[in-house]
Amino acid sequence: MSEFAELSLGDKKYQFPVITGSEDEKAIDIAKLRDETGHITIDSGYKNTGATKSAITFLDGELGILRYRGYSIEELAEKASFLEVAYLLIYGELPTTAQYAEFENSIKMHTIVNEDMRKIFEGFPVNAHPMGVLSAMVCAMSAFYTGDKSGSDELNIIRLMAKMPSMATWSYKKSQGHPVNYPNNSLDYCSNFLNMMFALPVAPYQVNPVVSAALNKLLILHADHEQNCSTSTVRLVGSSHASLYASISAGINALSGPLHGGANQEVIEMLEAIKEDGGDTSKYIAMAKDKNSGFRLMGFGHRVYKNFDPRARIIKKAADDVLAALGINDPVLKIASELEAAALSDEYFVARKLYPNVDFYSGIIYRALGIPTDMFTVMFAIGRLPGWIAQWKEMKANKEPIGRPRQVYVGATERAYVSMSERA
Ligand code: MLT
């Protein structure tokens, strides 16, 4: 029997259908609410609003579950390659050997970026934030790669997957005053990225398998996270039928904010500031508890995970492995482990569920891998790209309407225009 939710407004009662997802998630379908009652809902930050029905990622914030297309994040991070996960997200199933080879080869065929795009890139200041540069370059792709006459976005999907790592490394090379590296298609996706980042004309880069495995894991952990801020942005921009490039570029901008992807950069900057101030973590723990201190611990707690972030559990282990394998002894990382230990044992943080999240550990690993702080969010964007693409594709396949939220107007009511000379 169909389930209904009943709403009483004055002396009238209305019924709205309850819909149930494949994991038994419940939603009240209010599509007819305004037509039937003249009311809308208000939900600042959309915390109780399901914007879509999606078959890509399942997340249970209470139980700390994250699955892509039904596969647990723990298993994927342990066993899969990032490109395999990208294929899974974008096309819905894990690839066969032949499908994987075709996907990887098509990506390799498109890793070179149009040389004329380098002219645009050259115009950016040397200290430009790489997220701003990346979003501009991705948007510029719509001017350079207009050719998919079939009307399908397949080629554009491949181009984005192929060129994003190449373009991302340009900013770093420029900040170092070094020539950019061209892709090396004999390397796998992660190793190719590391090579473009770190190889020098005078010193070839030897990819360390521990480093490339850690990067593979990080990219998988970031690959999708259902309707987060940047993904919702991608879907919303795409809902106007803007191009895939324009939509992904908008997603990169949304991700750049410190409340979203920019948090991993903020974590390391916070740790560095604590180190500069003498490294007394207990002082900062006390400040974090004091509402008037103006200090906020970055990288602790999460909007949707109420007990723990499953990605953080996986990444913590990876962080420990990477630090041990690379023999890293960095005072900033020592401060990180002291903060982590304090937060996990202190009643104040435990009661408020302020446990270290994925941003906390990802910043630590990226630092250990030698990736500069302002590139951390770019790494998140490279990881999130297949998720954005998958969500954009799903939104189009579902023929979703243009996104158009409403509002409750709280401004001035109608008033007459007063000429400037008569205004007080
Ligand atoms: C994400 O992975 O997108 C972040 O954890 C933010 C979120 O899900 O809201």
From TrEMBL:
<dbReference type="InterPro" id="IPR010953">
    <property type="entry name" value="Citrate_synthase_typ-I"/>
</dbReference>
<protein>
    <recommendedName>
        <fullName>Citrate synthase</fullName>
    </recommendedName>
</protein>
<dbReference type="InterPro" id="IPR024176">
    <property type="entry name" value="Citrate_synthase_bac-typ"/>
</dbReference>
<comment type="similarity">
    <text>Belongs to the citrate synthase family.</text>
</comment>
<dbReference type="GO" id="GO:0005737">
    <property type="term" value="C:cytoplasm"/>
</dbReference>
<feature type="active site">
    <location>
        <position position="302"/>
    </location>
</feature>
<keyword id="KW-0816">Tricarboxylic acid cycle</keyword>
<dbReference type="InterPro" id="IPR002020">
    <property type="entry name" value="Citrate_synthase"/>
</dbReference>
<dbReference type="InterPro" id="IPR016143">
    <property type="entry name" value="Citrate_synth-like_sm_a-sub"/>
</dbReference>
<dbReference type="Pfam" id="PF00285">
    <property type="entry name" value="Citrate_synt"/>
</dbReference>
<dbReference type="GO" id="GO:0036440">
    <property type="term" value="F:citrate synthase activity"/>
</dbReference>
<feature type="active site">
    <location>
        <position position="359"/>
    </location>
</feature>
<dbReference type="GO" id="GO:0006099">
    <property type="term" value="P:tricarboxylic acid cycle"/>
</dbReference>
<comment type="pathway">
    <text>Carbohydrate metabolism; tricarboxylic acid cycle; isocitrate from oxaloacetate: step 1/2.</text>
</comment>
<dbReference type="InterPro" id="IPR019810">
    <property type="entry name" value="Citrate_synthase_AS"/>
</dbReference>
<keyword id="KW-0808">Transferase</keyword>
<dbReference type="InterPro" id="IPR016142">
    <property type="entry name" value="Citrate_synth-like_lrg_a-sub"/>
</dbReference>
<dbReference type="InterPro" id="IPR036969">
    <property type="entry name" value="Citrate_synthase_sf"/>
</dbReference>
